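Sequence, please.
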């Protein structure tokens, strides 16, 4: 792949989808939209991604009839196996298998390299950002949900089925408080609050309690607060100062500290990198998080914010697409990432 060949990077999250055109490793044009808008009236998410990507390329002067891209990098908020297949469908539109990969490959007639979003954020932070130079790192994505990309010995850990790093699915003890409906039951998780959980009986997943979407839902119940959180953002300095919202922020810190402590006990990373929109809001709480982790872990890791901001997944998708075409396939395969062109519901 020539250094000046453009790539298309797509990051599909539970809440928003972002698409960017890259040249020389830098974004030249971009767009983003709510993920649900890409699949209206029962149409497939793949159709929406193709339409949005074509529109972006047309606006960039790269009309769909003569697309000048060499590869597509697809970042998904889902577990992805070694061949780029989604292991289990996600309820916000990501189907199981290689459906999205195949639709994009057909539409653009270029290789499509697919991976989990946290893995790609970890790849970007390790190659370009805050984890550069570290042999072991844990990159935790704090957004609507919670993800984790693990680097051990300089290699990204995929696990036996491609689902390593699903930190949001760490189980917390919870008591059922009602009947199960549509696969979910109301539960009380003590100091972590109450929620509707799809986890096995007696438990809740940590992201159902301290992920961004869960925190926004909890905040919306506090209608009497003096500071109304914008879009459910409760960890900004202004929102965190509100006495009714502050306990939710403290709950989030405790949950994140528990995740870091769990990862540290198993992997012992040199550095933990926090990235994502929720992490950015909580930058002012980083020292408090470090102190709490130090209370829970005998040898705590260094804890920092990611240096790539909200573009970590897009940058990782670009790196991954380029690796598929630039002769670096073996390198990333050894890192646990499939660089094949053929590319969970929680």
């Amino acid at each position: 792949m020539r250094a000046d060949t453009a790539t298309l990077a797509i990051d599909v999250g539970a809440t928003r989808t972002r698409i960017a055109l890259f040249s020389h490793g830098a974004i030249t044009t971009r767009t983003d939209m709510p993920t649900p808008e890409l699949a209206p009236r029962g149409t497939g998410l793949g159709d929406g991604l193709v339409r949005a990507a074509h529109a972006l390329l047309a606006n960039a002067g790269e009309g769909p009839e003569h697309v000048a891209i060499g590869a597509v990098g697809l970042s998904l908020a889902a577990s992805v196996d070694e061949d780029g297949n989604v292991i289990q469908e996600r309820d916000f539109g990501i189907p199981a298998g290689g459906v999205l990969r195949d639709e994009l490959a057909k539409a653009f007639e270029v290789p499509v390299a697919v991976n989990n979003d946290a893995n790609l954020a970890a790849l970007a932070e390790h190659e370009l950002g805050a984890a550069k130079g570290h042999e072991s790192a844990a990159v935790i994505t704090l957004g609507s949900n919670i993800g984790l990309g693990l680097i051990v010995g300089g290699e990204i850990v995929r696990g036996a089925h491609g689902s390593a790093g699903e930190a949001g699915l760490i189980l917390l003890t919870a008591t059922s408080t009602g009947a199960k409906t549509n696969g979910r039951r109301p539960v009380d998780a003590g100091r972590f609050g109450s929620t509707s959980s799809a986890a096995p009986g007696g438990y809740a997943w940590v992201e159902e309690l301290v992920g961004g979407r869960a925190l926004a839902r909890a905040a919306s119940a506090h209608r009497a607060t003096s500071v109304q959180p914008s879009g459910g953002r409760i960890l900004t300095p202004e929102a965190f100062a509100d006495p009714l919202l502050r306990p939710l922020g403290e709950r989030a810190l405790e949950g994140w500290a528990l995740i870091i402590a769990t990862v540290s006990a198993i992997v012992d990373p040199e550095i933990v990198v926090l990235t994502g929109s929720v992490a950015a809001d909580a930058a002012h709480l980083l020292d408090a998080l470090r102190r709490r982790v130090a209370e829970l872990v005998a040898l705590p890791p260094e804890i920092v914010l990611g240096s790539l901001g909200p573009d970590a997944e897009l940058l990782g998708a670009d790196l991954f697409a380029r690796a598929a075409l630039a002769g670096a396939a073996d390198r990333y395969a050894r890192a646990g990432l499939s660089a094949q062109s053929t590319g969970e519901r929680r």
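The radius of gyration is 20 Å.
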